[in-house]
Design goal:
about 220 residues, alpha+beta, Glutaredoxin, Glutathione S-transferase Yfyf (Class Pi), Chain A, domain 2, 2 domains, globular, GST_Omega/HSP26, Thioredoxin-like_sf, glutathione dehydrogenase (ascorbate) activity, Glutathione-S-Trfase_C-like, coiled coil
Length: about 220
Amino acid sequence: MTDKLVLYNAPVCPYAQRAYIALKEVGAEFDLVDIDLLNKPDWYKDVNPELKVPVLKIDGYNLAESMVIVEYINDRYPEKNLLPKDPLKRAQIRFAIEYFSSKVTPEFYKFLMNIKAENARADYEKNINQALTRFDELLKEQSATGPYFLGEEFSLADIAIAPFVFRIHAINNVLLDGLKLETVTSSSRLTEYIKGLLTRPSVKDTWIGEEELVGFMKKRFNL
C-alpha cells in the first residue's frame, strides 16, 4: 500500500497552485502542508534544499518543480485525460505553456518589480498586450470557441496558465483600477478563455483570494 500523497504548498505561489489544481482535477487523495514563503521553517530544507514550492511527496520521495509534478500527476492518473493522446496536440499544449511562461508572465513580474518607474504602466500595457496577441492566435488555432485552450476540454495548458491569469486579473483589478487589457476586450476567444479559467472549480478552490494575494504582493515587491 502506498502512502498518501503530500503537497507542500504556498497559497500565494502560482507554481504551487499548478500542482494543487492538477491534484483537484484528478480527484487524488492528498495531504496539504502550507509553507509561509516569507518565513520558511528550518525543517523545510530537508524537503527541498532550494526551499521552493511546490513539492509533492510520493512514497517518501520529494518531487519538485511545478510542471514536473503536473506531468507526474497526469501519468499517474491517465484516465483523467489531462493530456490528449494525439502527439501533435500534446506538443501544442507544451508550446502554449512555454509561450505564456516566457512571454506573458515575465511582463507581469517586470511591471511589479518596476511599478514606481516612469512609464511603468504604459510599458506594461503595451508589452503584455503584444504578448497576449500571439497567445490569442494560439487559442484560435485550437478552437474558435472556448472556454479552454483545447475548446471544451480542460487540459495541462489550462492548469499551467490559470494561476498567472488569476494574478494578472487581480493586480489589474486592484492596483490598476480595474484595467481592461485591449487585447482581451477585443477578442471574444481570449475573453471567454479567461472567464473559463476564473470560473473553473479546481482553480477557484485553490485560489488564495484577491485581497490576500495583493497584500502579499505589496510586501514581496514593496509596493
